[in-house]
């Protein structure tokens, strides 16, 4: 739990802000699509209106944008900019379930995916929500299921499969990628896809919510300090092939997050690939840095080729 106190300071409290906008908007030519046609299930109160905040806490020399008070989740579809491989990835930005790093761990990931012929679906899921509690500005249990966020993730997976033909997507090549708290969401939907957490709404909820592959980038909430797996993440042989990346000097979540999850995947005979680096810290996204870890996107693309998601 102490690690997430550090995370909150690093990502939010310690990041002096210098600008605020209303709500996050995609670039011209892209439209946010509400994922719920009516009332949002298990709606929770939020402390105020949705906002975008630019931080002075620079990553690779640039600020990052944080969305908070997201009560109406949306998805934004980014079509491939080159030859379409048929693959798609739903992206979960991180932010400790308090905010969403919409550019650093969202649109920038989509740019990389689309430039490699992969459709990107950027999910703006509900925050703040458990494990973070804005009422107390605390994290009473870092290992609980992020129910609103997981509901949003399950719903989005169904919607992408429902519209796969329309969006020129292979329904058997739809994966997920998440960073930090979003990496936890990757593990949750990778292990809890058989039953929706909400009452079915329409045809999208009859589609499978199981990702065909998963990428968890510096994930959190997966391992206790004694190196045991979060019991809310029940790995089985049905868990999709998974790519893991973390730095040994990640003092926000800790390298044991990837180590423990990888061990559980291996025990269940789930194909997995893990890359650990000596330096890199936390929350670097895909931005270039001075350490070798910033070259991880090439490793991830090679892995996607290895498992047959994209052609070599």
Features:
hydrolase, 312 residues, Rossmann fold, four-stranded antiparallel sheet, 6 helices, signal, alpha/beta, 12 strands, disordered N terminus, GDXG_lipolytic_enzyme, hydrolase activity
Record the SSE blueprint.
Layout: H1 2-13, E1 17-21, E2 32-34, E3 51-55, E4 65-68, E5 74-78, E6 88-92, E7 99-101, H2 103-115, E8 119-124, H3 147-162, E9 174-179, H4 181-191, E10 214-217, E11 242-247, H5 256-267, E12 272-277, H6 296-306
Parallel strand pairs: 6-8, 6-9, 9-10, 10-11, 11-12
Antiparallel strand pairs: 1-3, 2-5, 3-4, 4-7, 5-8
Verbal overview:
It holds the Pfam family Abhydrolase_3. This is Alpha/beta hydrolase. With 312 residues, the chain is an alpha/beta fold. It has a single domain, classed as Alpha/Beta hydrolase fold, catalytic domain (Rossmann fold), CATH 3.40.50.1820. The chain contains six helices and twelve strands. The strands form two sheets. It has an eight-stranded mixed beta sheet, sandwiched between helices. Helix 4 links the parallel strand 9 and strand 10. The N terminus is likely disordered.
